[in-house]
Each structure stands twice: as C-alpha cells, then as structure tokens.
Amino acid sequence: MSDEGTDRPAGVHTALSHLVAEARLYAAGGETERLLDALDTVVTVSRTELPEGPLRERLLFGCSRVEYHADADHEVAAEYLRAMERLVD
C-alpha cells in the first residue's frame, strides 16, 4: 500500500514522520549526539526507501542543513526539522 499521491509506501511515511519528529525534539533539547544519530537514520531511510525526486532531495538537503547547525544553533536545526515534518506529514 502506498500513500495517496506519493510513491512512498505507508510504512516509510510513518517511519520518516516519527524519525523527523524525534530528531526535532533532540534538536530543541540541545541533545546533539542523539540528534545526529536520528538524523543519520533519516538520511539512510530517505536514500534507500524513497524514489529519486523532489521529496527525497528536500529531505536530504534539510538533513545537511540540520547537521551543519546541530552543534552551534539548536533552534535553527529544530526549525529545519519542523519544515521537514511538514514534508512527510
């Protein structure tokens, strides 16, 4: 079964939604190590489970920006993740 209007299986959608939300909570709480672990999983799922296309590219770009800001600016990292949540919800 796939999500309506997308090429991603429902399980992938659920996993990404959960992972991005979890990463945002880690960013907001200043938990950099846990944030980076969750982010690594988002990257892996995006690369292996999503077809090439705009959603995959946006998520991977967002992950790169979150990683860049993870140590120095948790608020910016959390906002990138909030935008990514809207993409997968």
How would you describe this protein?
The protein has four helices and no strands. The protein has a single domain, classed as Four Helix Bundle (Hemerythrin (Met), subunit A), CATH 1.20.120. 76% of the residues lie in helices and 0% in strands. The two termini are 17 Å apart. It is globular. It has 89 residues and is mainly α. 28% of the residues are buried. It comes from Halorarum halophilum. Residues 1-88 form the DUF8101 domain. Pfam families: DUF8101.
Please render the helix and strand layout as text.
Blueprint: H1 10-28, H2 32-49, H3 54-69, H4 74-88
What share of the residues does DSSP label as strand, in percent? Answer: under 5%
- Note the run of SSEs as H and E: HHHH
In total, the number of domains comes to: 1
The level 1 CATH classification is Mainly Alpha
Unreliable sequence segments:
1-5
Global outline: globular
Main sheet characteristics: none
Give the beta-strand count.
0
Query: Structural class, judged by helices and strands?
Result: mainly alpha
Share of helix, binned: over 70%
CATH A-level architecture? Up-down Bundle
CATH topology: Four Helix Bundle (Hemerythrin (Met), subunit A)
The first-to-last residue Cα distance is 17 Å
Mean pLDDT: 91
Task: Give the radius of gyration.
Answer: 12 Å
- The helix tally amounts to 4
Protein name: DUF8101 domain-containing protein
Domain DUF8101: 1-88
Pfam families: DUF8101
In short:
The chain is mostly helical and 89 residues long.
